[in-house]
Structures are given as C-alpha cells and as structure tokens.
Amino acid sequence: MRIVDSQDSRTHLPLARFEEKTAMTWGFSCQITQSESNQDVICNTTKKCSPRIIETLEPAQGFSGMSFESALGTCPQEALRRFSRLRTLDGILCRLRTEKGQDTFSKKFRGLPQGLTTEQELEWALREAEADHDAESAFTAWAHALDRTFNLRRDGRAKSFILPAPESGLRWQSRKLWIEGALADPQVTTAPAMKRMAKKHLPILLHAISDFADGVTGCGVAASHATIARRARQIAVERPEIDPGGRGKPLHQMTADSIEKNVRTLRAVLRNTGWAVDCAGGRHLTTVERCLAKILFGINQTKVASVQDLVTPERAWVREEPRDARPNWATSSNAFTLRLAARSLWKTARKIMFSSTYPARAQVSFIFKIFIGLLKKIKSFEIQKSAPKRRKTNRFAGVPDPSRESQKITADLRQSWGWLLPKTRSGQRMDPRVVARIIDEEGGSHLTAKKIKTFVDLRLSMNFWEFSPARIKNRLAWFRTILRDLLGTRGEDLL
C-alpha cells in the first residue's frame, strides 16, 4: 500500500495488491513519502485483529505557543490516512452509476481478502465501518480543537479554508481613502500592465477588492480572483454610478475569464506599487488541509488563495489637520455665543456679589462695568463679508456661433480624432467651437467628416507617410492646412 501526503499531479495510485491482480484507480498523488506492507494496513480476517484498527486519539487541549505548521504535525496519522482514503473513495463512488459497481469498487478499494464466506465478509465490513467511524471521530475532534486555537472559520464568517497568516503590521486609513488614493496614484494608472484593461473598469475592481478587507485595518483579503470577479460583476450591475464611462465594454457584459484576468493584473500592480502586501501565497492544499476543509466547511477544496493586506503607502498618506474643539457655530459674531458668554458673566457676577468682602456699592459698580464692556464689544463686531466671486468670462462673448453644419462635422471628427483639440495649461480640452470656426472660415461647411478623413488617408498613402498625431506640434494649423488643400482643385479631383 502506498501512502500519499499531498496531491499535486494526477497519477495511477495502487490501492490494494494481491497475488492474482492489482486494483487500480485514478487518484491525486505526489511523491511517495511512506511505504508499508499491505497486511499492516488492511485488516485480514485470517489473522485475529483487534476490533478497532485505529485508536481513538484524544485531541490536544490547546496549541498555545505553536505555529500553524507545527500544530499540523500533531495530527493523528492513522486517522488522517483512513479519513483521506474515505474522502477519495467518496469522490470516486459518486461517479459510478450502478449500485453494484459502487459495491464492487468499494471492496477492491478497501482490499477485501479473497475466499471469504458471507459471514466472514460481513464481519470484515463491520470492522471496516467501525474503524472508519473511529478515524473520522478522532480527526474531527482534532480539527475542531485546531479551529478553536487558530480560528480557522473566522467566527463563522469564512466559507472555505483560509491560510492562517500573520498580519503585516501595516494598514489603510479608510476604505474610501484607499480607493481614491489608488485611483489618483500615477504609478497605478500608468503602469505598463494596466494597458491591458480599460480604465473605466479600475474603480469597480478596486471596490470589489476592498469589500473583502477588514473595514478598520484593511487586512485579511483572502478571496480568489474568481470570487473577486463575481463581486465586481455584481457591483457593476447594482451600482452603475461607480462606472465613470469612457471607451471599453461594460464590465457586466464581459466574460468571467476576462474579468478574472483583469483582477489578476490589478492585484499584481497594487502589490508592486505598495498598495497591497502579501502575507501568505496561494498554493495547493496538502492532505491534512484538504481534510480540514472537508470537516470544517464541508467542501472538497484543493487550492487556497493568497492572503493580502490592503495598505496605504507613505507617499499617499493623507495628513488630516486636527479639528477645532469648538463647533462651527461658535464664532464671535454669533448671537447665541454672545448670550452664552453673557450668561457665564452673570453667574460670575453673582458669585462675586455673594462671596466678596467688598461693599455692595462696589460690587454693583463692578458688575455694571462688565456689562458696559460687553455691549461695546458687541457693537464693535464687523460683519464678515465673503470675498466677491470671480465671474467667469466667456471667451466667445460677442462672437456669433458657428454654423450648425460645421458643428456637426466637428462632433463627428471628435469621435475618431479626439486628439485634434489641444489641452490648455489647466489640462482641459479646448472648446470644440474653435474647430467649427476654422471650418466656417475656410468655407468647408458643405464637407463631411468622412471626406476629410478620406483625404488625409489618400494624402498619406500617396507620399508613403505614416500618420502620427503626437508629432504634430500645432494641430489647429495642421487642420486648417488640410482644409485648404482639400478645398483646392487638387483635393476635389482626388475625391
């Protein structure tokens, strides 16, 4: 009998060896770690075996002071071997259609000795069932003890096995600031890998990733790429206001593989730019961890995702100024504030009046001076006038609007030639009416955008030139030259 410790590759796994034939099946296996004789593992009725093959092991009361890897080493090995074989057998039997086939394969898988009578075969089956129950009970008790120490089920919130990873010690400021900072960071938006995905998908994917993090620290993102992709599709449908618009296919109309590929690309960029820190890498689960997933979560899990902490880099940390202890309404020009001050003065004056050793006449004079000073201060307050707002000046004030035909040509050109309008110093595009006025001035309002683009293509092909908008220094002057050549006799003849 071969005992396997982990499943990484798919190979033939010998199940039981006899003199005449060998039972074989498909199983997930890796390098052989241990070899035992067949008779040491299989209970043979020809020898008098103890009624319980696997002893019931008492789970450790606690794993305090031990790492998770060290705690896995305390697993009862005999219970693990039998429970792992039971898990493999259940996965194979569910694929067999007939009950007879399931019974025959189960006997060959367990290594039923040949030449037994019906009574001996029944006794063998009862001993196997009892040993299976003892193994499952022992491993279940150990798994729940491990869960109580390392909180593998995350207080009932986890739906699959997650690697217990130590926190990085870093954190984010808040979910909102993390998303806004990543969107504003040029190292994220201009990364070479981000050219593979549309920029309009970035806010939705950042919201989907941050939904799996702790709301206070940003730690513990253990979801797989596929899970985050499903969450991103759900956000795109339920919260369409997050989508900024622009070029590209809507995210909820993309395939699951395409969204998952974008999630993988974005998480790699966030890790390289310092917006995420890996605490544990994703990998295939070992036999012990797969059995733990079966016991604690009831699923057949073979892989585990990486564990990340979402953090805010030092360069993007928002320095919040300390807030004033006074509320916003507590200003010196507020009448309510003055009433509060007068009330406190009155309380002080009464305390002076009843506790002071001065004569009553001096006390009244003192109080009178206090209120006179308060009244003078009220009159001295000046009304704070807000700074006059600067009126926006219209650049085209007094200039007639361009014709409707030229505006339509400009709108059609902007769909394919968005680079035609240069940016101002503030980073905004020029008014499209500038292009429309050039068309009117050159008398090209009878043209169409398609004719202009066709003329440019013909001109480039005739001269064997390559079109590169980035090399055009003055784009408006270039466009005016194109219109003049097109409206000339030569341009009309070409079209």
Please outline the helices and strands.
Blueprint: E1 2-4, E2 9-17, E3 22-29, E4 32-35, H1 38-41, H2 68-72, H3 77-93, H4 99-110, H5 118-150, H6 175-184, H7 186-189, H8 202-210, H9 225-238, H10 256-272, E5 276-280, E6 283-284, H11 287-297, E7 303-304, E8 307-310, H12 335-355, H13 360-379, H14 404-416, H15 433-441, H16 449-463, H17 475-487, H18 489-494
Antiparallel strand pairs: 1-4, 2-3, 5-8, 6-7
Helix pairs in contact: 3-5, 3-11, 6-8, 8-9, 9-10, 12-13, 14-15
Account of the protein in words:
The chain folds into three domains: 2-150, no CATH class; 175-316, no CATH class; 404-494, no CATH class. It is 47% helix and 7% strand. The chain has 18 helices and eight strands. The protein has helices spanning 38-41, 68-72, 77-93, 99-110, 118-150, 175-184, 186-189, 202-210, 225-238, 256-272, 287-297, 335-355, 360-379, 404-416, 433-441, 449-463, 475-487, 489-494; strands spanning 2-4, 9-17, 22-29, 32-35, 276-280, 283-284, 303-304, 307-310. The chain has a two-stranded antiparallel ribbon. Strands 2-3 form a two-stranded antiparallel ribbon. Helix 9 crosses helix 10 (256-272). The longest helix is centred in the first third of the chain and has 33 residues, at 118-150.
